[in-house]
Specification:
With about 170 residues, the protein is mainly α. The chain folds into two domains: about 90 residues, no CATH class; about 70 residues, no CATH class. Helix content is about 75%, strand content about 0%. The protein has six helices and no strands. Helix 2 runs antiparallel to helix 3.
Length: about 170
């Protein structure tokens, strides 16, 4: 294989990601909106939802007054974004991480390990990260059943752990 296309592809990806990140951050800082409401909404998205419910209306008025006063520059927007990230850090909850971990591992056990693996086994697919493919006959189906059963238990535990978090505000 010639190195030219590989080097071109690497260069394209190296240039793409910083550009995509810069454009995304620019949009989240409120640039590209033609009205003040769009810019204010974009800046408020940096803050967690409970904070926006509690302080959002007053902070929106403050941002509108700042924009009307001509002090709507990059430094102001970066300061608003930085403080929003700080507030999100204060609202961080390990119980949300635990619930997300349970749900993620549970769905990985049910779908790829419990559903996709037996289908690949019928087609004699190569053994990869699918645990059930390393077994034959009845053992394969026991592993598939175990994966589905344990996965469903993890999903249930994740949903039970997440339910109180939906009712109570984060932070």
């Amino acid at each position: 294989m010639k190195p030219g296309p590989i080097i071109a592809e690497i260069a394209a990806w190296i240039l793409f990601f910083p550009l995509a990140i810069a454009l995304m951050i620019r949009r989240q800082l409120g640039y590209g909106y033609t009205d003040d409401e769009g810019r204010v909404d974009a800046l408020l998205q940096w803050y967690p939802a409970p904070w926006r419910r509690k302080h959002g209306e007053r902070f929106s008025e403050l941002l509108r007054d700042t924009m009307a006063g001509g002090r709507d520059d990059l430094r102001t927007r970066l300061d608003v974004a930085r403080e929003g990230v700080v507030e999100r850090g204060r609202a961080f909850s390990w119980s949300r991480v635990w619930a997300s971990l349970l749900l993620t591992v549970g769905w990985i056990m049910v779908l790829p390990q419990g559903v996709v693996a037996p289908i690949l086994g019928w087609f004699d697919a190569p053994k990869t990260w699918f645990v059930a493919l390393y077994f034959d006959g009845v053992e394969r189906w026991l592993v598939v059943g175990g994966m589905i059963g344990i996965g469903l238990l993890l999903i249930d535990a994740g949903l039970r752990a997440y339910a109180p978090l939906r009712e109570a505000p984060a932070g």
